[in-house]
Amino acid sequence: MTDRKYAEMLTPDNAVLAMIDHQTGLMVGLGDEHPTVLKNNILGLINTAKAVDLPSVITASMPQGPNGPVMPEIPEILGSEVVEREGEINAWDSIAFKNAIEATGRKKIIMAGIVTDVCLLFPALSAVAEGYDVYAVIDASGTWNKTVQEVTMHRLTQAGVKVTTWASVLAELMNDWRHPHGDALGRVLAEHTTKYGYVMNSHFAK
Fold it and tell me: Are 99 and 134 in contact (CB under 8 A)?
C-alpha cells in the first residue's frame, strides 16, 4: 500500500520551503542552465512561496568565505533570516537549519540548492531517511554541467525524493484556479514563465 504521506499533494498548509546555498560564489560556475533562466526560476519559486505564505528556511555555507553571500533577492522576498552554517557541507547536519525545519511542524520539504549534487542532494537524502517527503526543485537548483545534473537526479529518485520543477510546485500548491491564492499564483506565472506567461498576461489585460 502506498504511504499516504507520499501520496498526499502539496498544499500551502503542509509544506515548507528550504533554499540551500544559493550563494554568489557558487552561482558563477554553474553550467547546466543559462544564468538568466536559473535566476528567473529561483525567483518564480520564492515568489510562489511568498504568494501562499509558505514558511521558508534559507541557509548558507560559510558566506564570509569563497562561496559568498546568498543571492540577495531570496531573503528580501521571503523575509527570512539566513541560517549561516559554520562548516557543515550537508545542511541537515546543521542543528540550526534542522531545528528551523522541524519548528514548522511540516513533513513536506520543497528543496532547492546550489550545487545540485551536493547542497541539494545531501540534505534531501538525509531528510528522506528521517521520514520527510522531499520535493527537489531541479530547475531552481544548479550544478557544473548537464551530466552532473542527470546523475544527481537518478540518485535522488532512487532514494525516494520527488524530482520536480518550480512551475509544477506552483500548480500543485494552487490545485484549483478558484483557490484563494489563485490570482496571486497566476501573476507569478505571468511574471516568471515564458510562453505561458504570455497567456497569463493576455488574460490579465482583459
Answer: no
The question of whether 119 is a catalytic residue gets the answer yes
What string of pLDDT tens digits covers the 206 residues of the chain? 456 666 799 999 999 999 999 999 999 999 999 999 999 999 999 999 999 999 999 999 999 999 999 999 999 999 999 999 999 999 999 999 999 999 999 999 999 999 999 999 999 999 999 999 999 999 999 999 999 999 999 999 999 999 999 999 999 999 999 999 999 998 998 898 767 777 777 777 76
Domains of the chain: 13-174 (3.40.50.850)
Q: How far is CA 170 from CA 3, 10, 46, 50, 142, in A?
A: 23, 9, 10, 11, 19
pTM of the model: 0.94
Among 20, 43, 119, 121, the active-site one is 119
